[in-house]
Amino acid sequence: MTSPRHLTIDLPDGAAHVLEAGSGPPVVLLHGVSGLAEEIMAPLLELSGGHRLLAIDRPGYGGSAPQPADRMAPDRQAEWLAAVLDALAVDRPVIVAHSFASSIALCLALARPDRLAGLVLLGPFCRPTPPSARPLLRVASKRMLGWPVRWALPQVAPFLAARSLAATFAPDPVPDHVLRLPFAVAVQPHAVMAMAAELNGFNAVMETVADRLHEIACPAVVIAGDCDRIAPFDHHVDWLAARMAHCTTVRVEGRGHMIHHVRPTAVVHAVERVLRADRRLIDLRPLRRGLATWTRALRRRQIAGRPAA
Questions:
Q1: In the chain, which ranges are continuous DSSP H helix?
Q2: CA nearest 30: which of 203, 90, 275, 279?
Q3: pLDDT digits (tens, 9 = 90+) for 238-253
């Protein structure tokens, strides 16, 4: 394993910050809401022993430039991610996505089906869901009214981190290495605005994506804890698995939302499983594309034949 290198990728709409380690078949790591590239890479650095491991700060987070609010929905972030991968000359990666970022990975798999080897989704938050209250985030995201809150959050973040992390990890303990992360960076003003914008754009996009998940032909493994309080297994994982043809689910008993920190070996095994499945299917891609086209046409005919409400 090697220490991560910091890369700055220049894009037309601002720079993207990437951590890179190792060499070999590419594996791309996407953090969830309020996360950082170094947060998701830390427990999975073992993958750099045989892979080109890339952890990306999503727009507005960490060292990546913010994007306008109307570009923060999952489908638009998938476009941004595709541009980053093209700039890095990354072809056919396994995308490992945590929580909200699973929705971005699904959108990317639909938009660029021939460019991915597969998906590993961790505690996925992907099903359209009534929004929670989040009063502090709502106030903080107000452009003028929320400015004092956005300024104050990085100042108080180190003092509030332990309690916030305990709730996020529950019922699992918070690992020591997580407590050393730069919490002030995680809640910098751009990150707060990014959180609000991506949550606001989530449901509308995923309601549309739900009807297309059957088109995803790449292999996928979903790993989640059955005590996840943020993305409950029965609500998100079962919903997702019922809609994806090439999806294997791993239910980890007694574990919560931050599954990559408490079961990193399971993630490593899932990446290798996806790559093996992709190699077996590589010669069948023309058939799979034809089957996906036929499935889409059949679904359109079924919808067209439904009586009007």
A1: 37-41, 74-87, 101-111, 135-140, 147-169, 176-179, 183-186, 189-200, 202-209, 233-241, 259-262, 264-281, 285-304
A2: 90
A3: 999 999 988 999 999 9
Mean pLDDT of 113-139: 84
pTM of the model: 0.87
Q: How far is 67 from 69, CA to CA, in rounded Å?
A: 6
Mean pLDDT of 184-200: 85
Question: How distant, in Å, are the alpha carbons of 2, 14, 87 from that of 186?
Answer: 24, 19, 25
Six token digits for residue 110: 């639909």
Q: Provide φ and ψ at 97, rounded to 5°.
A: -125, 135
How far is residue 107 from each of residues 219, 227, 253, 306, measured CA to CA in Å? 15, 26, 29, 27
Does position 145 have pLDDT exceeding 80, yes or no? Answer: no
Q: How far apart are CA 261 and CA 170, in angstroms?
A: 12
CB distance 142 to 247 below 8 Å: no
Contact (CB, 8 A) for 74 and 206: yes
**How far is the C-alpha of 5 from the C-alpha of 34, rounded, in Å?**
22
For tokens 């910091």, what's the residue? 6
Query: Cα 302 to chain center, whole Å?
Result: 32
Q: What is the pLDDT of residue 90?
A: 96
Q: Which two structure tokens, joined as six digits, stand for 108?
A: 């990317």
Backbone angles phi, psi at 189, to 5 degrees: -50, -40
**In what order do the strands lie in the sheet containing 5-9?**
5-9, 16-21, 52-56, 26-30, 94-98, 118-122, 220-225, 247-252
Q: What is the pLDDT of residues 286-296, one digit of tens each?
A: 555 565 566 66
DSSP of 164-233, one letter per residue? HHHHHHTTSPPPHHHHTS-HHHHTSHHHHHHHHHHHHTHHHHHHHHGGGGGG--S-EEEEEETT-SSS-H
Answer yes or no: are the C-beta atoms of 255 and 226 closer than 8 Å: yes
